[in-house]
């Protein structure tokens, strides 16, 4: 299937060439009102620089910056890459979530977020909680009080079936949390 993707360099939604590599974003929408693709704005969102004129949610902006910084061009985000008030289009893509997430080069998992206005931890300066470390005889040691998966399992992200599905379907996940980040393959 051909996907509409965010071109992070041209800052617009585009129908990507077949076989294009892309990164997907998995996050909790929450109850906030953020930019979404609709029948009334989808043409505008396809114009170069549209995402400067109509800025997306903070988490999407941070994901765009991260995708650009790792040298990739395309990002898939459900709220912008699926027209939210076009029932046929929405139904079409909802039944293809397995394809969308399994074919992504990487899925960015915003595990600490509770809504789309939360920043993506670690992308912007001071957006991650400081981690205590000690230097002993030239070696920097970091104390961990829990296993890597403990904060993920306790998060709002893990309580949602929709985001759980995205995590399970993805081949590679960059899980970003307030105090840590890890990659699963």
UniProtKB/TrEMBL annotation:
Heterokaryon incompatibility domain mapped to chain residues: 22-166
Signal sequence segment: none
UniProt-recorded name of the protein: HET-domain-containing protein
Organism from which the protein derives: Polyplosphaeria fusca
Organism phylogeny: Eukaryota, Fungi, Dikarya, Ascomycota, Pezizomycotina
């Amino acid at each position: 299937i051909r996907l509409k993707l965010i071109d992070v360099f041209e800052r617009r939604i585009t129908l990507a060439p077949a076989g294009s590599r892309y990164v997907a974003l998995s996050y909790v929408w929450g109850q906030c009102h953020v930019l979404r693709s609709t029948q009334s704005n989808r043409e505008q969102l396809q114009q170069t620089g549209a995402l400067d004129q109509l800025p997306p949610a903070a988490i999407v902006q941070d994901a765009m910056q991260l995708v650009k910084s790792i040298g990739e061009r395309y990002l898939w985000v459900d709220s912008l890459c699926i027209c939210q008030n076009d029932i046929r289009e929405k139904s079409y893509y909802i039944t293809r979530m397995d394809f969308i997430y399994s074919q992504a080069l990487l899925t960015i998992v915003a595990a600490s977020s509770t809504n789309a206005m939360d920043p993506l931890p670690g992308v912007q300066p001071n957006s991650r909680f400081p981690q205590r470390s000690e230097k002993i005889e030239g070696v920097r040691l970091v104390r961990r009080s829990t296993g890597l998966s403990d904060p993920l399992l306790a998060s709002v992200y893990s309580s949602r079936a929709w985001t759980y599905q995205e995590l399970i379907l993805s081949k590679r996940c960059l899980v970003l949390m307030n105090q840590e980040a890890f990659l699963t393959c």
